[in-house]
Design brief:
single chain, alpha+beta, Dna Ligase, domain 1, D-amino Acid Aminotransferase, Chain A, domain 1, OB fold (Dihydrolipoamide Acetyltransferase, E2P), 3 domains, seven-stranded antiparallel beta sheet, six-stranded mixed beta sheet, 19 strands
Length: about 350
């Protein structure tokens, strides 16, 4: 006959009594509690450091580089907050993403990712995203925007930024199952970095991101994440414009500057990439910011100068020997809430 378990594990041994657990003992005040981390109001994002070529080795994971607005989606038990890189609340501007975030299942989380609008080839289009939002400073709701999540920073009461990237990635993949909704997983691609970069460039993508699998999430540009671009694209300050001689009330080109030390330096102009309506809108905007003295050292006739407040995203192929942009093309204006880094020259 089988014997009953010994008393030492706390079971009643009388044959005519039901088995019951022992009464709970008072909690020892010296016993540590399970850790609980309050959700932070904001986490400064981890930024990718520009690299000339992809890193090699098994330590690195690769993803496609998205061209949009960096956002953090905070899912709380009673609400969702969508914050820009600069910490501005844009929840009302991404209603579709907000609604999708409410249905993800977890009680609380912070997703790190990029809001984009895709073209008919599935490529992110920064200009289309700007139009969806109503332009710089616009208040339109970007219903067409898709949020590609590429990191998970907080989950159900726990700050997981101290975990390795590979561990955070596993948790993120367990949450994001729907591949067609407003919130999607930014796929990790198993490939040699150089081969993936070549393929990305052939398909007209901006480039790739490399992430060290063994690093925690650290704010700032630490080198844990790298960006390798097919075509150079950077943010520059708009310091004025050259009026169009063929289209009344429009610009012919924008005058651009980069940061150097504590000031600005002229890096050339951009005269392509504008639609007619954009060229007229830019002139109206810059005319309202007009100043007499140029904010940078520049020479030219018929130039109109403006306060250095607007930031434009510019695609270009190379630099000239005298420090000017070659084959520059306008992609759109960066919103101040995006807190984009203005290119700095040495």
């Amino acid at each position: 006959m089988a014997k009953r378990p010994p008393k030492s594990i706390g079971l009643r041994t009388e044959p005519d009594q039901p088995l019951k657990s022992r009464a709970p003992a008072p909690r020892d005040p010296n016993q540590p509690r399970l850790p609980f981390d309050p959700m932070p109001d904001r986490i400064e994002p981890c930024l990718a450091l520009l690299a000339s070529k992809p890193p090699k080795g098994d330590d690195w994971a690769f993803e496609i580089k998205w061209d949009g607005y960096r956002l953090a989606v905070h899912v709380e038990p009673t609400k969702v907050r969508i914050l820009t890189r600069g910490g501005h609340d844009w929840t009302t501007r991404f209603a579709g993403i907000e609604e999708a975030a409410r249905n993800l299942g977890a009680a609380s989380m912070i997703l790190d990712g990029e809001a984009v609008v895709l073209d008919d080839q599935g490529r992110s289009d920064f200009g289309a995203l700007q139009n969806a939002l109503g332009g710089r400073g616009g208040k339109r709701n970007a219903n067409a925007a898709v949020f590609y999540a590429f990191d998970l920073l907080y989950l159900d009461g726990h700050d997981i930024t101290r975990m390795d990237q590979s561990e955070r990635r596993m948790l993120l993949e367990s949450i994001l199952i729907d591949s067609d909704g407003p919130i999607r997983l930014s796929e990790e691609i198993e490939a040699d970095g150089a081969v993936l970069l070549q393929s990305a460039c052939e398909h007209g993508l901006e480039g790739i991101i490399a992430k060290n699998r063994h690093r925690p999430y650290r704010s700032g540009r630490t080198g844990d994440w790298l960006k390798i671009k097919c075509v150079q694209s950077e943010s520059f300050v708009v310091v004025g414009y050259e009026p169009s001689t063929t289209m009344p009330g429009a610009i012919a080109s924008l005058l651009l500057a980069a940061r150097k030390g504590d000031g600005l330096v002229y890096v050339g102009s951009v005269g392509t990439g504008f639609k007619d309506s954009v060229a007229r809108d830019l002139r109206k905007q810059l005319d309202s910011m007009q100043i007499v003295k140029p904010p940078v050292a520049i020479k030219g006739k018929s130039l109109v100068y403006a306060r250095p407040e607007l930031v434009a995203e510019i695609e270009f192929r190379a630099w000239t020997n005298d420090g000017k942009l070659r084959h520059a093309s306008f992609k759109g204006l960066r919103d101040s809430a995006d807190a984009a880094d203005v290119y700095r020259v040495t």
